[in-house]
Amino acid sequence: MTPSTKKRVLSGMRSTGKLHLGNYVGALENWVRMQDEYDCFFFIADWHALTTDYADTSRLKENSVEVLLDWLAAGLDPAKCVMFIQSHVPAHAELHLLLSMITPLGWLERVPTYKEQKENIKEKDLGTYGFLGYPVLQSADILIYKADVVPVGEDQVAHVELTREIARRFNGFYAGKREYVFPEPAALLTPAARLPGTDGRKMSKSYGNAVMLTDPEPVVRQKLKTMVTDPARVRRSDPGNPDVCPVGDLHKIFSTKETMAKVYEGCRSAGIGCIECKSWAADALVNILNPMQERRKKYEDDPRLAWDILEAGSARARGVAGTTMNEVRESMRLDYSSNYEPVKDSKK
Ligand code: TRP
Ligand code: SF4
Question: CB 3.0 to 4.6 Å from 83: which of 19, 231, 266, 313, for a disulfide?
Answer without folding.
Answer: 313
